[in-house]
Automatic annotation (TrEMBL):
This is Uncharacterized protein. GO terms for cellular component: extracellular space. InterPro entries: VOMI (IPR005515), VOMI_sf (IPR036706). The lineage of its organism: Eukaryota, Viridiplantae, Chlorophyta, core chlorophytes, Chlorophyceae. Pfam families: VOMI.
Length: 95
């Protein structure tokens, strides 16, 4: 895999925020493999390694909020075999 795309819903006000809803991976040949297509949010542009392939991932999470709205997963950052870090977008919550 050499790239990816995220489906993210931003803040929707007083409704239930869902944040990260979908993930597509881009294959070497350019095909997209859908890991999950969610019901909410828009798709980011494709973020792709300049050379090499995806080797590591870091998940951005929001912890339990107690009385607040829990979004859980908010973004995924990948690293390429050439050391390049990729960002395809993120929801505003978590750390």
């Amino acid at each position: 895999m050499r790239g990816y795309q995220l489906q993210i819903e931003g803040s929707c006000g007083w409704c239930d925020d869902t944040a990260l809803n979908g993930l597509r991976l881009r294959c070497e040949e350019g095909n997209m493999l859908s890991i999950q297509d969610g019901n909410w949010g828009g798709w980011s542009g494709v973020s792709e390694c300049a050379s090499g392939y995806l080797t590591a991932a870091r998940l951005k999470l929001e912890g339990q909020q107690g009385g607040g709205d829990d979004t859980a997963a908010n973004s995924i950052q990948f690293r390429c075999s050439n050391g390049q870090d990729l960002w395809a977008g993120e929801a505003p919550w978590g750390g």
